[in-house]
Structure formats: C-alpha cells, structure tokens
Amino acid sequence: MRASSLVRLAVTAAATAVTLNAQAPARTPLPNLEQMLGFKPGADRHLPSWKQVVDYYTALDKASPRVLTRVLGKTTLGRPFLATFISDSSTIANLERYRTIQKKLMDPRLRTAGDSREKLIEDGKNVILITLSIHSTEVGGWSTGLVLADRLARAETPEAKSILANTILIFVPSQNPDGVDIVGDWYRSTLGTPAEGTNPPELYHHYTGHDNNRDWYAFTQVETQYTVDSLYTLWDPEIVNDVHQQGGNAGRIFVPPYMDPVEPNIDPILTSSTNALGLEITWRMIADGKTGIANNASYDQWSPARQYSYYHRGARILTETASARLATAVDVPFERLGTGRGYDAREVTWNYPVLWPGGHWTYGDIVDYQVTASWALFVAAARDRRAWLESYAKMGERAVGTMPPWGRDAWPAAYVIPKSQPDAVATQRMIWMLQHGQVEVRESTAPVTVDGKTYPAGSYVIPMQQPYGGYAKSLLERQKYPNLFEYPGGPPKRPYDVTAHTLPLLLGVDVAAVMGAAPAAGAPIPAVKQPAYNAPGLSGTSTKRIGIYKSYAESMDEGWTRYVFDTYRIPYTSLHDKDMLAGNLKSKFDVIIIPDQSGNGIIRGVSPTYPDSLRGGLGEKGATVLSEFVEQGGTLLAFNEAANYAIDALKLPVRNVLVGVRQNDFYAPGSILSVEIDRSQPVAKSFTATVPAVWFENGPAFEPTDPSAVVVARYPTSVNPLLSGWLLGPEKINGKAALVDVAKGKGHAILYGFRPQYRGQPNSTYPLIWGAILR
Ligand SMILES: [Zn+2]
C-alpha cells in the first residue's frame, strides 16, 4: 500500500468513528462472545474459525465507540486481514490527532514552533500493538484476543478504565488468518482420531509456515506488509505485545528479559524498558497466583527478522505460553518436566521463581495465562504512560542527534550505494526493503570517496543520523556474532534463530561505509517501487517442466521455493510422495527440486499418528525413481540437507566432509560465507555478485570423489570464509565445495551445500538455481 493511502486509511477510520459516535444512543448492545462462538472462549477442544473471529471484531466495532475494526487487505489465500483499535471513545474519535502527536514524539524534526515537547508528552497516549497467533499451531492467541477485546469494550473496573484512558491498543487478531482455518479445519477433521492434536500435514502459511515470523526486514509476505505499512509505519508503537506458545515440557510461560546476545544496534533504552516491563508482568502474574514463569530463557535479542519493533522504538514483550496438543488437554506430571534453555522447571531460581506443580494443562489454561500476561502489561503501560512517552521522545531525539553513545565499534556516518551495480533489480529491491522499514534514503550531491574509491554524485546515501539509522546499520553491516558456549570447553550455545542479516551480501549489492563526516546529500527520495522480478529464459516463458517435491512432513524451505518461483513467474508442479513414486518421471519433468529437508523426513514422511493416505514418505522406492530420472536425462536440484539425501539415494561420487564432525569443531547455524565461483560452469553463468556469498545453515560441505562431480563453488582455501554471522572451525571447510554439478547417465544432480533461496532473500544466489534449471 502507498503511504498516501495509508494516511487516508487512518483518517477514514477516525472519521467513521466520529460518525458512529454521533449515533451513540442508537447503538446495539455489546455482542455476547460466548453466544456468537457457540462455546466459551478457551473451552477444551473448541477453536473459533476465522469467520467467527472476524464477525466478533466487526460486531464489537458496530456496538462500541471504544472499538474500531478495519480490514487492512486480503491475505495470501484471500481472507480479510484485520486490525482493531481499542481506547476511550474520545480517543477513538480523534485517532488522527493522537497519531500526529505520536509522530512528533517519534521524530523531533516534525515538531513545529507551536509544539512543546512537554505538551506532546502530556497529551499523547501510550500506543500498544498486540500481535496474536502469527504461528497458527499456537492456537491460544485466537481466543486470547477475543477475551481481551471483550473485557476492554466492557471496561467495568477502574483498572480497565485507566487502560482505556492512557493507552491506544491496536490488536492484530491473527497475523496469519489463513492459518487459523488451515489448522482449525485440520483439528476439527481429526477430533476423536489418533491424529487429534497433531499439526496439519501442510505449511500453515501458504509460503512460509513458521518462518512467517522471520520476515520483518525482507517484507516478502502481504501479511507482514499490512502490519508494517498500516500499523508500524503509521503508529510506531511504544510497546509490542507478541503472543506466542512454546513446547509443553518446561515452564508455563516465558516473559522477557531475553537471553544474550543483544544485537548492538538496538537502543539500550528498549532493552532496559523491556526488561523492566517483563519483570513487572512476572511480578503481577505471580501475585495473581500463576506459577511456572521463566525469564531470561530460551529467546535471544539478536535479529531484526523477528524483532521489527526493537529497531523502531517499540519495547518487545514476547510471551511464550506452554502448548497443549492444539486445543486438546495434556497431562504433564512434575517428574516429566525438564529444563528450558536458561532454567530448570524443577528448581526455583531467580529467573524461575515459582514452580508449576505439573498436572493437567488445557486450552483454557493457555488462554488464561496469555490474558493475564497481556492484562498485566496493559495495566503497567497505562500507569507509566508518561515514563514511556518520555523514553520514546528521548530515543527519537538521540537518533537524529549525534552518534549513539552505545555499542563497542564506532558508527559510520553513512552508507553509500552506487547506482551502477552488477544487479540493478537486486539494488532496487534493497532500497525498497530499507524504505519499507522507514529508512530515509537520499542521493549524494557530490562525489564520495571511500577507501580510495570514488562514488559519483547521485549515488544513494543512507545517513545514520535519522530516526531509524540503527535499523539501517544492522541490515547494511556485517554481523559479528559473539562466540558463546554452554560452558567453558562445552558445545556452542545455539542461537534462537540465525546469526546474519546483511542485505548487501544476501542481495549481491555493493555498499560502502563512510566513516567521519557524512557526505553531502539531498532530501529523502520518494519511495521506490518493488522491482519486477525476471529470470531470463524462465519467467513467464519457460519451456522447462519443473517439479518441486512437497513432503507431508512439511518443509518451510519448500514453501519458500514456491514463493520465489511464483514471484519470478516460473511455472512448476508440486510433487507429493505418490506423484514421485508413480515413477516414469522423465516423461513428465525436465527438472525436479528437493528443497531443504532431512533425509529422514524425505524417506519416512509424517509420524504413524497421521492418516494412512499421508504416510510413507519416499521410502526406498524414491531412490530408484529419482536415479532413473537423472539417468534418463533429468536434472535434480537438492538444497542443503536434501543434498545428503541425494548423495545417498543416487549413490553420487561426493562426500560430505562434515558428517560426524562435532559442533565444538564446526558450527555455522545461519551465516553468510564467502565462496569462489567458477563462472565458466553452466550452472554459474549468470552469477553477478561482486562478493560471492552463500547462506550457510547447518548444511553439508562437499568433496568430489570422481571427476564426474564438478565443483561450481568452493570455500576459500586458506582464509576464513566467514563474512557475516558466526562460524566455528573454518578450517573444516577451507577448500571444500559448496556447490557441485554431478553428471550421471544422461542427466545431472546439482548439490547445494547452502540455501540458495533462503527465506526469499538472496537475490545473489538465485542465478545458481536458474543456471541449474537451464543447464
Ligand atoms: Zn511462535
């Protein structure tokens, strides 16, 4: 959505509220939630459908002047994506006024002579964004939002009235509405069968599955875009309450503080305010009689991919409540409780102050914990409104002021990005991504010289002195992930997710950091459009018949593969086990892709609790049909772990040198590594990046054992391949192959020791996919 229409959305919203207020006496009574659902929210074995959720928030909008519900757009599969604002009726009627105050607090450059900082703080509201159930098997959030909205709309207590008076709450009832029905329909269809409570045999987001919460800087999915464009960009909330669930065998809920490491570009005000608020929530929950609350556990504070607000002035309160089996209760005796990361659920410690005694754990318990934690957050945020707004204003003032007084390394003054680049589309995409995250991009008004290289006037310039300079810096620089170990001499302490997010390396764009004085530059340039993506010889016009393997043991990498192919308009067919096992594949396909998945998952598929029609995987016969396919002239592409499967299944003359290597000796859990590319190879003929780099994530590294296996990309022979993130034991892969092209019979198997289409991000390695398809 364009910025102008976004502002219009907010204005229209406010205007509609005014109209509704004028008719206040004729309002319908508040809807009865239980009647609308047909069951009590949180009742065992009952999940609302997305239509029921939409109907309730819509009815609440009609009935209450405190509630404003809007559809922000259509989801990937066509469902309405909702946001609901809740506050005092007078605030809802004047949302645009409060949004203007919020913007002036956020960015001191927007304040006019008549704006007193003190008055803005006095008049402003503490804005809280509540994002629910982005992960659709974490089903508590579907009902938790309903219960909270109902309680706020009724606001019968002084505490509730204080929340409405001091805060603006913005609910995203589900960050993935499609998943509410994908999971809910599966759950209802399996009730009373052995599969009751299992995850659906498909991704719960059409393209991303669980990775939908790793999209907060690439903005590949429309759902991410709605929340960023229509909520974050317009409001930049002070606090984000992100409601999740975790495994069920340790604590009952996680509340911040987070574990180390802390990403160095996050304003420390946010780290400390998140810590303080998290502990306050914990305090209140314990006083309310809740048990099993863990702090400083499991979740770290590293990546913008899932912590957008941490780079945009918002304290991030992630809560992770223990799961049941979807809405089916479980029994967890105390003796079966184990350790979470950073605590032991059988020991009292400072960060796990009260034991959960074990026992029955129901869907209602999940909803109750989530509601209690959110309510505690709302109460504290309302009470401390002034402190939150003062901090918020302070962060804005120092972001546009002198260089930030935190971190270890000196900040550059700016980044310069020449317009003449090896890949113009990737460059445009990077500018689009940065602007989408509210980064101001300018153009230099004179040539800029960095390290002896001169960039012409008119190059893109991204000064660090701007409201979200730290966000831009985190995406443009190379990450130095700390060497963390479980204990001295012990294994590496695994990061919660991955360790790198350097856009210039992922996209293959040349960027230079300017130290010292910022280059002269003009005003921020208007928003660029997302580029049209095109793979020559494949997009729209491909004659190649491409199959993409789709396991019922769902693989996020498979979804991302489809996403990239759809984005590039390259036709393909999804191949389930039965399609593969039907054999005679060469008569139907020229190319088959097996996305990243463990060999075990590919061979065995889903567990025995699933219906017979879904079980089995590729089994032993898979190896036979795929060998035949390649022998007869087909091209097989195997990504990351699937390459190990292909080596075994096709008996390829390639060895994975990392088999059996301990994590103490080699570890790279999501990092960007440098490679040397043999551009004379057909697979690499359209590769363009100046700094060849691959996304390495617990993948294999190859050594050919026969000349029929040709190396297309290899890690450098002597220098450390690490460019961004974390790598232990670089010598284990020095000189080893990252990409090999193996001739077999009339065909080829192309093995990738990395993820060439990682989360829809690395434009730089997409040509290695196109080259393999067209070889
Ligand atoms: Zn989650």
In short:
This protein is of the alpha/beta class and 775 residues long. It is 32% helix and 18% strand. Strands 1-2-4-3-5-10-6-8 form an eight-stranded mixed beta sheet, with helices on both faces. An eight-stranded mixed beta sheet has the order 22-21-23-24-33-32-30-27, with helices on both faces. Strands 16-19-15-20 form a four-stranded antiparallel beta sheet, covered by helices on one side.
Overall description:
It is a single chain. The chain has an eight-stranded mixed sheet, with helices on both faces. An eight-stranded mixed sheet has the order 22-21-23-24-33-32-30-27, sandwiched between helices. A four-stranded antiparallel sheet has the order 16-19-15-20, with helices on one face. Strand 1 and strand 2 form a beta hairpin. It has 22 helices and 33 strands. By secondary structure, the protein is of the alpha/beta class. Residues 1-25 have low confidence and may be disordered. Bound molecules: zinc ion (ZN). Zinc ion (ZN) is lined by residues 135, 138, 244.
